[in-house]
Write a structure and sequence with these properties.
Number of helices: 1
Order of helices and strands: H
Helix content: over 70%
Shape: rod-shaped
Largest sheet: none
Number of strands: 0
Radius of gyration: 24 Å
Length: 57
């Protein structure tokens, strides 16, 4: 195997590794947002009820 071929192989492996890291971070962020969704929904309901009681809606 030539040195250029070996360097290309290493470059491809590094690119694949970086793509996997980025996808993992994006999925972790998406799951974090989805896990906070019920709490956020509760806050929205409370705000809407308070606004309705104050005749702002």
């Amino acid at each position: 195997m030539e040195v250029e071929d070996l360097l290309k192989l290493v470059l491809v492996l590094v690119v694949v590794w970086l793509v996997v890291e980025i996808v993992t971070e994006v999925l972790g962020l998406a799951l974090g947002v989805l896990s906070a969704l019920p709490s956020l929904l509760g806050v929205v309901v409370v705000v809407l009820i308070v606004l309705w009681l104050l005749n702002r809606i």
